[in-house]
Amino acid sequence: MDELEAAIYSVLHYNDDIALHELESNLDIIVSKSPIQGINPSQLKDLIIFLCSDNIISNEIKLIIIKNCLYPNSLVSLDIINVLIPFLGKPSSISNPYKIVADPVIQTALLNWILNIFPLIKFNNSILNSSKLICLWQNETIQNYITCIIIWSTRIKDDIKPWKIQLIHRYIANLFNKNENTTILEENYKDIHGDAIINSIAILRKFQSFFGKSNELISNTISKLEVIYPISRKKIRSSWLSKFKFDSKFIDTLSNIIPSSEFFGESLLSYYEKLTLEIKPDLSLTSLQPHFFINLKSINTSSPLLKAKCFEDLIENWGTITIPNNIEILFSNNTPLFIKLYLLQNNKSHFIEEKSIYSWLTVQLKRLLFSKTKFTHENFIKDIEKNQLIQQLIFILEFYPAINKRILIDFILQIPYFLTDQQYKSFHLNFELLTLICKLSLSNFDITSSSDLWKKLRESFLFYHLKRSTETTNLFFVIANELILNFNHALKINESITIKNFELFTSILLELEELSSVFLQNSSDNLSISFLLRNILNLTETSLDLELSSDYINKLIIPDLFFAKLMTLDDSLIIDSCCKYLNKCSTIINNIQLKKENKIAINKYLKDTTNYLWKNKISNSTTLFDIPTLFMKPIIQNIYLPGYELKSNVFFSILNIPAFNYISNIKLKLLESEFNTNNQYTFLLNKEGFSMFVTRSNGEITWIPKMKTFNSLRNKILKKYSNDMIYPNIFLLLNKLSNINKNPLRKIYQTKNAYIILS
Question: Is the C-alpha dihedral spanning 265, 268, 272, 277 positive or negative?
């Protein structure tokens, strides 16, 4: 915080505990420093509130600050007006007796200041409270200033409402206190309120510029007002709008603080001239005709694209916009999205050719891919310039299909032919190239024309497979996840695109499944792994809904090793996704297109999953997820757990496996607090633990009602799960596979908001 900011902060937070001379000292700093370096927009808003609501300093000092100190040092948002609006108008003892209203002198000074900084106001980040503004317009003290703000800030048709037009007409009619058909009034009285008539017609003419004469409400209202007060050149020349001038001293100081080129493409003074022209009457006319006010559209012969500050600027100058020759500026990360979208809408062949966007892209791709800097994942995150370049390229390749295909065919597909083997297998080249390719839309790929590209893609995945290290493992999951998300997005947008590329999809999917299971052996837990595995499962499950040939359906059955890896990761979200996949598989198990070995595999997955999550029949099984139970039993028996004989029951079932044990205990604690129980369950969640709990209570359990058996407790906890809609696919699968007579899990039926387990 520099000296000026500190001084403003001290003034804003002044209280009786601070000496008066400190306040005077801080005010001196503000007066001397602000005309040189300007004030931050956020502090400007705080200062406006202070000047309107605080009585620490006199109105004379406030006026000095307003006229000599409130210089913004950058563009300001519309909030600068919205902050001032609540303090405008007259105090009301009826509707809001506690409303704080600024002194009329302060109101006019601040409104005049708003007019002087108007070219610096941004219209794209916030919404002006125009409804409140038009109501305040009826106050004669501030009406002239509000008129300018309304005219300058009305930029789209949505700003114009019928009630605003009716309010203006009603105000003028009431002001003259005569029937609107009366034409004979005292001339002096009419002249006193002449500015009000001119202001009202000025606003209506601005509204009319959006509709022309087709809007009868506006045209009729203007005609009625001109009957009340006929307009002459003399009256126009003597009006406040005609005499209004910006503060030249203020503008000169502001120009020194803010370089015009930083925010505009032309001088700051020219913007003030345009604003003046927009409110100045045309003295060559004897009445307020539709072109009484010069429209800004007629001033600009051409409008450079980068000068647009908001989308409304594009609309106003749509036919005169010129595109700069420097393509790189257009696709900078700092370029507003509305400019990029304009280029997308204006995607014409002459733009592609004349601006040499293809040549520019080729240069950037070479600069990106052939960098000699050794690439690592950490360096990639830190290398902001390279990261920004990738984002620029992805944006262009995504939104410009013609450029996209041309780059793919002419550049990316040719990479293997002009690179040496050593260059092609360089680590950084693979990652950056794959990142670009995996993010490109599937609609741009065709199996016949892009086979070389996808061949190289598969080679690159093999390269990652051979170079297994912590660094390559993390990068593999990042790249593979991008590819899966791309397929998933294409499936949701257009099924035909996905089906057309399904041969490619299934081959890559199988490779990802196989490589994922290998990479899981030497990777630490991280979110990228979880995201990838869940996305693979969800995409595979969704693909089973497509009308596919038998070859593709059989390729969507997950291999044994991969499924076993997923279920034993002890990731609750991945297990839920596995159950979602099995739910879908159970519906196609009788499909005649499904091979016998795949039907056997699905049955095995279903059996192992229910055994693992519910039946807990590990001791009666020979294997569990391809792990021999003869291998597991000695290990389990050697674990020290005094008092528990059936140790296999301790480590399995949904209540005890690591992925769900903690949350199951939390659900039990919630049940105990819900029933305000005196006893607390502190044993393992199995039959033996429940028996110990009952024994400790001497058979008299003053605990959760109707909890007489472990099965009733288990169902109660699962009901708590289902009511909260946690891991819904697990319970759907268990319900589908449960046998009411042989299994303690009762029937689950679906209500509007939850799955309810009946005990």
Answer: negative
**Biggest alpha carbon distance in the chain?**
111
Instruction: Please check whether residue 666 lies inside any domain of the structure.
Output: yes
Burial class (CB in 10 A: 0-12, 13-18, 19+), 362: middle
Q: Say which residues have a Cβ less than 8 Å from residue 367's Cβ, sequence separation at least 6.
A: 389
Q: What is the separation of C-alpha 52 from the centre of its chain, rounded to a whole number of angstroms?
A: 35
Distance CA 620, CA 611 (A): 10
Residue 555 lies in a domain: no
For residue 230, count other CB atoms closer than 10 A to its CB: 12
Helix (H, G, I), strand (E, B) or coil at 589: coil
Q: Are residues 171 and 74 in the same domain?
A: no
| Pair 108, 137 in one domain | no
- Do 72 and 221 belong together in one domain? no
The C-alpha angle with vertex 648 and arms to 645 and 654, in degrees rounded to 5, equals 125
Distance CA 86, CA 712 (A): 62
Give me 213's structure tokens: 């004469």
Could you tell me if 107 and 203 lie in one domain? no
User: Rounded to an integer, what distance in angstroms lies between the CA atom of residue 356 and that of residue 403?
Assistant: 11
Contact indicator for 408, 449 with CB cutoff of 8 Å: no
Has residue 297 been placed in a domain? no
Last residue of a domain, one of 95, 126, 157: 126
| 208 in a structural domain | yes
User: Which phi and psi angles does 72 have, rounded to 5°?
Assistant: -65, 145
pLDDT digits (tens, 9 = 90+) for 580-616: 889 888 888 877 778 888 888 888 888 888 888 887 6
Beta carbons within 10 angstroms of residue 690's beta carbon? 21
**68-91 per-position pLDDT tens digit:** 999 998 888 888 999 999 999 887
Residues 137, 122 share a domain: no
Q: Hey, CA dihedral for 85, 88, 90, 94, is it positive or negative?
A: positive
Specify the 3-state DSSP secondary structure of 157.
helix
For the chain, the distance separating the N- and C-terminal CA atoms, rounded to the nearest angstrom, is 65
Asked whether the beta carbons of 246 and 115 are under 8 A apart, the reply is: yes
**Of 291, 323, 351, at which residue does a domain stop?**
291
Domain range spanning residue 116? Answer: 1-126
| 8 Å CB contact between 632 and 624 | yes
Q: Is the pTM of this model over 0.85?
A: no
Secondary structure of residue 523 in the 3-state scheme: coil
- Residue 486: in which H helix or E strand, if any? helix 470-493
Residue 136 burial class via C-beta count within 10 angstroms: exposed 0-12, middle 13-18, buried 19 and up:
buried
Say if residue 702 is in the same domain as residue 731. Answer: yes
> What domain count does the chain have?
3
Distance of CA 467 to the CA centre of its chain: 37
Same domain, 105 and 145: no
In the structure encoding, which two tokens stand for residue 723, read together?
Answer: 């009511």
Compute the mean pLDDT over every residue in the chain, rounded to the nearest whole number.
Answer: 73
Amino acid 758 reads L
DSSP strand E in 225-273: where? none
Q: Where are the beta strands (DSSP E) in 195-292?
A: none
pLDDT tens track for 609-648? 888 888 766 666 777 887 777 777 776 666 656 555 555 5
For CA atoms 271, 273, 279, 282, give the dihedral sign: negative
* 541 or 293, higher pLDDT: 541
Burial profile 706-727: b = 16 or more Cβ within 10 angstroms, e = fewer: ebeebeebbbbbbbbbbeeeeb
